[in-house]
Amino acid sequence: MILIFQRILSHYRAPVFKELNKRIGFTLFYGKRGPRGTFISQASPDFPHYCLQDFYPIKQIDTLGIQDVMTPLAKFKPDIIIIEFALWILSNWILLFLRPFFRYKIILWSHGYNRKNGFDPKKSLVDRMRLWWLNKADAVILYGQKGK
Prior knowledge:
Layout: E1 2-6, H1 14-24, E2 27-30, E3 49-51, E4 56-58, E5 61-66, H2 70-76, E6 80-84, H3 90-102, E7 105-110, H4 125-136, E8 139-142
Parallel strand pairs: 1-2, 1-6, 2-3, 6-7, 7-8
Antiparallel strand pairs: 4-5
């Protein structure tokens, strides 16, 4: 069983998820509302999915938030979890902590770096944290060669 957690179902990701679901099958979990200015799909996907309670943004940082991951973990007991990799999604940290207990693999889905600031772990604490996460993951899906 594969679970994918996303903050929202972006309209541009919906076709990717549809094609990916044909090939590997999974259940998608996402919030109904997202940060300001996001491109949310107006249609529900035509494969197994669940709208979680909303992604709960915290303070002024749109990407700082949390989702309910415990309910899906207990219900589905996944073998693999694919997460939208952002350091500020607090539920990702919970999933990393719970991995030894539930025995699932974690796959990160990301650009791999901050496209505005680049990637320099020697100078940036955030980049060191990102590198630490990338090394903890069982696999990583990147959007392009630059992230690699």
